[in-house]
Write a structure and sequence with these properties.
mainly alpha, Sulfotransferase_dom, single chain, transferase, globular, about 170 residues, Rossmann fold
Length: about 170
């Protein structure tokens, strides 16, 4: 099992834009409205912190590899090498480069109309890291940090996210 996790602040930011772009999902007039719903567990897909907490039970299983979105963005070649090794797949240098190129956000966004039809533009928006800084105010940032610590701060997944997000920022 490959478990891909992401900074909860960027998850919230991404879900905000996704929700407002998908008519079957609730839309939000303002970021503040969305943030309240996200933090009070009123998302149609559940609470991200609870999701992380549940997955943390399996973080040490030998058949589970956890990687962060931030790791993959920072060093996609190393990420693909580690994933391939975990699944016992040997790649030539050419195959490695092909996987890295085709799995890049830019490549997936470019091909999204072919692969995802009309939803392509909604699913593939920016693909960046730290876009949350464009939405969060100081109070929201502190509330998210507090919720992170309460739910996953002392866990293996929490430590992995904290290192990737806070120590490398």
């Amino acid at each position: 099992i490959l478990l891909l996790i992401r900074n909860p602040k960027d998850v919230a930011t991404s879900f905000y834009h996704f929700s407002n772009g998908m008519s079957p999902l609730p839309s939000y007039e303002t970021w503040d409205d969305f943030f309240i719903a996200f933090m009070t567990k009123k998302m149609p897909w559940g609470c991200y912190f609870e999701y992380l907490s549940k997955w943390n039970k399996y973080a040490d299983d030998e058949n589970v590899m956890t990687i962060t979105y931030e790791e993959l963005k920072e060093n996609p070649v190393l990420g693909v090498k580690n994933i391939a090794a975990f699944f016992g797949i040997s790649l030539t240098e050419k195959e490695l480069q092909t996987v890295v190129e085709r799995s890049s956000f830019q490549s997936m966004k470019k091909n999204s109309q072919k692969t995802h039809g009309a939803f392509g533009n909604i699913l593939f928006r920016k693909g960046g890291v730290s876009d949350w800084k464009n939405l969060f105010n100081e109070d929201q940032n502190e509330k998210m940090d507090k919720a992170f610590e309460e739910h996953v701060g002392g866990t293996k997944l929490g430590a992995k996210l904290k290192y990737e997000v806070y120590c490398k920022a």
